[in-house]
Amino acid sequence: MIYAAIRTRQLCGFFVPEIRLLILSSYFFGRMPAKFMAGSSAEYNTRKGNRQSGLVEPLSPSRSPSQGEFCVTTKSTEAIMATQATYSRTPSAFNHPAAAALKFKPREKFPVRRLPYVGFAKRRSGLCYWNVPPSGGYFGGQETGEALARIYLKHVNDQGRDYGGHLQHVVLDMFGCDRDGTPERDALRGQVVGFFCELEKFLAAAMKAVDVGVSDEDAQALLKRANDFLHFDEAAYMASLHKLDEQG
Length: 248
Fold this sequence. Notes:
By secondary structure, the protein is mainly α. Helix content is 56%, strand content 3%. The strands form 2 sheets. The protein has a two-stranded parallel sheet. Strands 3-4 form a two-stranded antiparallel sheet.
């Protein structure tokens, strides 16, 4: 039960940034006039320059953008994603220093194998796409998942989508969806592969169209955050909350 709870929280944390990106990019495309969707490079550069300098008109709730206008919300997509990349709900004071469990592997030939959450696990044969210790409790698991999700997004942004994608393999390995020969398990595996392959295609396309700033993020800082919260003391954290409740 504890293993499943931590794995669930890591899954929630891992996919939160992806869902935010999808929502933000969908809103971005929905507010973009048609002329900019297939415009020239000059139009794109003008639009990007205006957006970076703040020369964009806030979208009024009382009307929709007309043809030829470019309206976005006053808080840019980049600012939202950058803020959420550094935001943490869980106090780091309850992290216990320990040896880093996750590391980048720069000597690997294939880029996907360099990722810290991909490796060869002792509990199974072959490459595991979620080789992450189930530790840190429910809250620490979400923080670790979010940090690794940012690393995943940075990988897709910098390297492009892997041939065939690898997001589906992350989900399959996260919950141990191995082949067991039953029709039900095979159907579930097929559903996972189809769902997350399609999702990853859209994520890769959205990142090309919307600058979310992941290319400028410090990968080592994200890795440190992921490792730190693997050693989060959830029991001490919950005890401190109960103590505050009693004092209040």
